[in-house]
Amino acid sequence: MRGKGWMKVLVGAGTMLGAVAPAVAQTPPPPSATYVVEAEARPVITDASITADITVRLENLVMLRNAQLTISTKHGVVTLVGMVPTDFARMEALQVAKTTPGVIMIDDMMRLPVGSPAAPLPN
Prior knowledge:
The protein is of the alpha+beta class. The protein contains 3 helices and 3 strands.
């Protein structure tokens, strides 16, 4: 009897599996999880903030503190106009503008004083 008892249990289990398995196979898979990754918040860089940043950084350089420079920015294009004391000071001003975030292009309209040895000779 013991063998027949196990046989009934196995047949009953098989019948239950047969009845349940098709139902499980027909259920749709759960929807895949959607993850939203939030982008890192970056500060908005405006033309005014670019101009202000360059102005502050140039004022911190001793050689350019008294330079007569006008700085303007339009759509990321920085224009430097005015007189600088030396060619080295001009290169420093250009470097400050190049390393400022948001600058796309630099329009160099700086000039040296007429009496400077590095200034171009008049025609």
